[in-house]
Amino acid sequence: MLRRHAALSAFSLVLAIPAHAQSSVTLYGIIDIGVSYANNAQTGVVNKTAVGGPQFALTDAHATGLSGSRWGLRGTEDLGAGLSAIFVLENGFLANSGALAQGGAEFGRQAYVGLSSPLGRITAGRQYDPLIDFVQSFAASGSWAGYMGAHPDDLDNLTNTNRINNAVKITTAKFGGFSAGALYSLGGIAGNATQNQIWSLGAGYTGGSFAFGAGYLNARDPNVSFYGNTPNKGTATTNNIGSGGSATSPQSYPVYAGYASARTLEILGAGTSYTLSGAVFSLAATNTRFDHLGSSSGPNPLGYSGNAVFTSIDLNVRYNVTPFLQLGSGIDYTHRNSVKGDDGAKYLQLDLAADYFLSKRTDLYLLTVLQRAMGTDSLAHPAVASIAGFSPSTTDKQIGVRIGIRHKF
Q1: Could you tell me the pTM of the whole model?
Q2: pLDDT digits (tens, 9 = 90+) for 318-349
Q3: What is the CATH number of the domain that holds 167?
Q4: How many domains does the structure of the chain reveal?
């Protein structure tokens, strides 16, 4: 009898909660598809020589456009006293084929649950790191140039090539224009608390016409923890970053694929912007380090040791010609130090964009990216141009063009 009364009391309590709580679930998404052109794209590597030619393709924006296609569910429940339960489940897909993006993960873009209050929020799951939250918007790729406007091969991850699994994240509310965030991803390895761990910090300020942000990310064993966190990736014996190609496949991520054996990945970034008469002038800078090459984190067929360090500078401007037409232009320069006695590498890139809004939810856009590479890439070959989202060029130059349509719902 006592058990029965306890069960009835608990059931009554559960029924009473919805009477005071308010909850909502929102379905949202983006479909972004277009025709992309590269003047030169690899089709394979024969006798250590890249071969290829021009390429036309109908592709999802996940590869080269403004906003990777997605659908998601966002929910909140009012728990009272200013506290709310929140969640996000966000799936990425390829609109041209219907296939899953993010390496086949069901909710590869985001999947988290947490609590929110007037002071901030705490969430747990697969998430963006604070470096993305506070620096991404100042780069051309994070504002108007899309994935193909990323720094070569998205080497600093400012366009979310990789998310963070197993992460607990705290983000403050804005106080006087200032906010901050911190993230820690548990490696989950028995007996070694630091293996595969990732941590990140970020902070920013927005006030009037001026904005500023900075962030830092540190990933231990990045070939597994950072680049290997989707279903199509492998263990430490596999290069989860990219490859040197074959007779039937092109190279992938030649800018830094050779550094899979790094024990630690460090990315430090900062950016600022100023708005003046309809134009937003932005500057972003990142320093990406593949430290302690030659560790057991990933394969090292080229016998690298020491550190590979990339520095990128991105200067860009976007201008609203009319309420319906936005133009963008930017230039970025990337430099890498000498590794194992090579002559380093340099990449120079020009980004151009025009975006016409048919409505608040639908727009047509044109993107153009020109890139030139110099020096030696991470695969110990003469550096080839490698615009993010395209197969690398067979030469030191590459031009990418995309005409697309984007609809938000």
Answers
A1: 0.92
A2: 999 999 999 999 999 999 999 999 999 999 99
A3: 2.40.160.10
A4: 1
